[in-house]
Amino acid sequence: MQWINGETISLVLFCVGMYGLLARRNIIKSIISLMILEASVIIYFITLHGQMDKQPPIGDIPPEMMVDPLPQALMITAIVIGISVTAVNLTLFITLYHRYGTTNWYKAKQLQRQEKKNG
Amino acid sequence: MAEQIFLLLLLLFAVLALQQRRLRVAVIYLGVFSLLSSIVYLFHRAPDVAMAEAVIGSTIATILYLVALRKQESLRERTAYVRKIREDTRSHVFWHRIWAALAAAGMVFLLFRFYPWQAEPFPGPTASAYFRHNFLSDTGAENAVTAIYLNYRSYDTIFETLTLLVSVLAVIYLSRYQEKSNLRIDPQPERRRIRLHDEINEGISDPILWLLYPFILLFGFYTIMNGHLTPGGGFQGGAILASVLILRYMSAPQDDWRMHILQITEKLMFLLIILLPFSFVISGWHDAYPWLNVGYLILLNVLIGVKVCCGISLIFIRYAFYESR
Questions:
Q1: A41-77 burial by CB neighbour count: b if 16+ within 10 A, else e?
Q2: Is A25 helix (H, G, I), strand (E, B) or coil?
Q3: What pLDDT digit, counting tens, does each position of B275-285 carry?
Q4: Do the chains contact at B163 and A84, CB–CB below 8 Å?
Q5: Do A16 and B14 touch (CB under 8 A)?
Q6: Between chain A's N and C termini, which has fewer beta carbons within 10 Å?
Q7: Interface contact B174, partner A, CB < 8 A
Q8: What does the radius of gyration of chain B's CA atoms come to, in whole angstroms?
Q9: ipTM of this model?
């Protein structure tokens, strides 16, 4: 059971997110898989060296006992950017629903082709 | 052992969220996924990231998804879209699923095969080693993560706040779809008026919320101001303050002028966020006046907190309450 750690699980999560993006018909499911992709990258960076015997990077502790603070600072930024991307995606989804009246990628594509054919 | 259980649960909930047919349940599974990932960050000694994920990823993202689903349902109730595609699209997606499953399995195999499992840490001096040794004396912050994103790498913070501003602009611009809408919305929807604020007004009662607002505001300001001493900071505290505004708008929708004030405040904060690190850190003045260090940290945290609060509440207000402009 040694190989179930953050790195391996985040790699598998990334592939789960890719599968969801490729294989789901619903638009909301695609947006959910984008969020899973982003979460997997963040989990990867935070669990990178697996140092669970060290201490959080707060306070006056010796530097050898401190977990690496640099990925944590960057991942806070990544989380906020992830939610702004999600908000823009959901706005685009509502606009798409106004345009084509469906939440199915394939039906929306067929409607778009029909509209283009009809001019 | 406990961490491994949580990681496996994480995988389980991600797969469940994608498999689930009912979209509301899938969104709730995604919220639980975010919460479990926040707990995993706690296991790995990252309290700042855990707070950010719990407030922003688990709460605000779930609210946005649920609002999107409600909007879509209310549109579906009220409109008569003429050209419907009646065919079943399951056959379209069958071969896509086979290919996607093969691609995902292939990717897993390649990643595990060529990943450097036995890589050693970099032997020479690294940036994070410098940060770990010198953050207290250089910046005056006891929280190393705050020292990094406010002082050592303040460029990242500037660009991140710029990204939030751009996403607010994108949400406002992309929600103007009146002229392109193909849905014939009923002018007098008498049969079943499902409007967003009507339904919500029935559910939430005001006196309980008025009791809660001071505590949430206090907690939010505490998190912002003490970000350089304890886990927390501008981003987390800003999201907590934004949740107050979201609650306020869900219980009693207001007029336009609030949104105008939020927009002006956000842009002003962004200007100050650009000016402050450039004038204090990047220009080198912090070596000349080291006693201003802690004041700089608190001030920049407050600016970031107010900006993130304005940005997130603007996204929510514009997105939830404007059908077409």
A1: bbbbbbbeeeeeeeebbbeeeeeeebbbbbbbbbbbb
A2: coil
A3: 998 888 887 77
A4: yes
A5: yes
A6: C
A7: yes
A8: 24
A9: 0.94
Asked if B40 is an interface residue toward chain A (Cβ–Cβ < 8 A), one would say: yes
Cβ neighbours of residue B59 closer than 8 Å, sequence gap 6 or more: B31, B239, B243
Give the distance, in angstroms, between the CA of residue A97 and the centroid of all CA atoms in the same chain: 23
Residue B81 DSSP label = -
Percent of chain A whose pLDDT exceeds 70: 99
Strands (DSSP E) contained in B55-214 are none
pLDDT single digits (tens) B108-143: 999 888 888 877 777 788 888 888 888 888 888 889
- Percent of chain B predicted with pLDDT > 70: 84
Name which of A114, A21, A111 is nearest B99 in CA terms: A21
Kindly identify which residue of chain B lies nearest to residue A69, measuring between CA atoms.
B145
Q: Does B5 touch chain A (CB under 8 A)?
A: no
Q: Is B192 within 8 Å of chain A by CB?
A: no
Q: Mark residue B46 as left, alpha or beta (left: phi above 0; alpha: psi -120 to 50; beta: remaining).
A: beta
- List the single residue in A47, A87, A110 with the smallest CB-CB distance to B85: A110
pLDDT in tens, B160-189: 999 999 999 999 888 875 555 566 555 444
Given a cut of 70, the residues of chain B with pLDDT beneath it are 79-87, 89, 177-205, 252-257, 322-325
Of A20, A46, A80, the CB nearest to B41: A46
- Out of B7, B23, B142, whose CB is closest to A6? B7
Handedness of CA B26, B32, B36, B39 (dihedral sign): positive
Kindly determine whether residue A12 and residue B65, on different chains, have CB atoms separated by under 8 Å: no
The answer to whether residue A112 neighbours chain B at the CB level (below 8 Å) is no
For an interface test with B, the pick among A76, A88, A105, A117 (most B C-beta atoms closer than 10 Å) comes out as A76
Q: Check residue B243 and give its pLDDT.
A: 92
Task: Provide the pLDDT for residue B102.
Answer: 92
Rounded distance between C-alpha atoms, residue B305 and residue A89, angstroms:
24
Question: Which of A4, A75, A91 is nearest residue B171 as measured by Cβ atoms?
Answer: A91
pLDDT tens for each residue of A64-119:
888 889 999 999 999 999 999 999 999 999 888 888 888 888 888 888 888 888 87
Burial class (CB in 10 A: 0-12, 13-18, 19+), A27: buried
pLDDT on residue B81: 58
Chain B residues touching residue A8 (CB < 8 angstroms): 112
